[in-house]
Specification:
The chain has 336 residues and is α/β, with parallel strands linked by helices. The chain is built from 15 helices and ten strands. 46% of the residues lie in helices and 16% in strands.
Length: 336
């Protein structure tokens, strides 16, 4: 029987990760299954990486420790602490906006000593090696095979979310060559990791006639325009705030356009892009943890899940996902 590879891809987007977390909770409710059992590979960038790791962390019984709803509560309760103590405005011009202490505490509480190799399903977390100027991918399948590629989940999550201008890069020791690699948020090249995940499946199962079932989750699309009359007066300081969001969103949408052509809908292969249009009035900066902003993001995600058109698409997607999952033959990935 031909195998259809099921991929979940989750965009980066800082505090806006509560949007895909809410949609994932809706998927778990509709299917009656944890996300880790519905997909062969979960790829997540930045905040999407935190979700990917959280959804695949096992408890002492070998079952998912966190449901998607648990992660929604994590975003509401703990994630705002990460952005609650910025350094001075002047200091942000010379150093990252936030210190990492609060972030490290939140991640330690969530992940403890749990390691990448123990993920319940394969995960893929893009980062970027700024010293060698190359993509770096954390892969649970490699972590299972070689301790050189195995790290604590909390450290992987910290590196995955080290957005330039917001947090310091994260160094990882490499025992064999005695040098550390210095990593930042993979959103600088793969804020939407869907294509990266497809490439990973092709390398895991070379030679197979591969088909794909892909669910790609955005973290909200900004609809507020940046008019020429408004931005023509901007210099470095004014552009520094929206530039990160602009780059990340443009990368995500360009990958989505490529995926539509790469996987046109036809029998046996499906591609779903679930994206929420954010209200024009919403202050949707990726590091805005205010109660008003968090409630607005949650409301936008809940509205998307309840809207008749998107609800119909969600139901159709979940029904297809359950059907595909029940028909899957097993095969082993290559060890390369």
């Amino acid at each position: 029987m031909e195998r259809v590879f099921r991929i979940l891809s989750i965009d980066g987007g800082g505090i806006r990760g509560i949007i895909p977390a809410t949609i994932l909770a809706s998927i778990e409710e509709r299917t009656g299954k944890p996300i880790s059992q519905l997909f062969d590979l979960i790829a997540g960038t930045s905040t999407g990486g935190i979700l990917a790791l959280g959804l695949t962390k096992a408890d002492s019984m070998g079952k998912p420790e966190f449901s998607a709803q648990d992660l929604c509560q994590l975003y509401q309760r703990d994630i705002p602490d990460i952005f609650s103590s910025p350094q001075s405005w002047w200091g942000n011009l010379l150093r990252p906006k936030y210190r990492s202490f609060a972030f490290q505490r939140v991640l330690k509480n969530a992940f403890g000593e749990f390691r990448l190799k123990n993920a319940l399903t394969d995960v893929l977390i893009p980062c970027y090696d700024i010293e060698h100027r190359l993509p770096y991918l954390f892969k649970s399948r490699l972590a299972k095979l070689d301790t050189e590629f195995d790290f604590q989940m909390r450290d992987v999550a910290l590196a995955a979310s080290a957005s330039p201008t917001l947090f310091h890069p994260v160094q990882f020791p490499r025992s064999r060559n005695g040098r550390a690699i210095c990593l930042v948020d993979g959103g600088v090249y793969a804020n939407n990791p869907a294509l990266t995940a497809v490439s990973e499946i092709k390398s895991m199962y070379p030679g197979e006639n591969q088909k794909f079932f892909i669910v790609s989750l955005g973290t909200g699309k900004t609809t507020r325009p940046l008019t020429n009359e408004f931005i023509s007066l901007w210099g470095y300081v004014h552009w520094s705030r929206p530039m990160l969001e602009l780059v990340f969103e443009s990368i995500s949408e360009s990958v989505h356009e490529q995926m539509k052509y790469f996987l046109p809908s036809h029998e046996g292969e499906q591609y779903y892009r679930l994206q929420v249009d954010l209200p024009k009035h919403l202050a949707c900066a990726i590091d805005n943890p205010s109660k008003i902003n968090m409630e607005a993001l949650t409301h936008a995600a809940n509205h998307y899940c309840a809207d008749s058109k998107s609800k119909q698409e969600l139901n159709k997607m979940c029904e297809s996902l359950i059907k595909v999952s029940s028909q899957q033959p097993t095969s082993e990935p290559t060890k390369s």
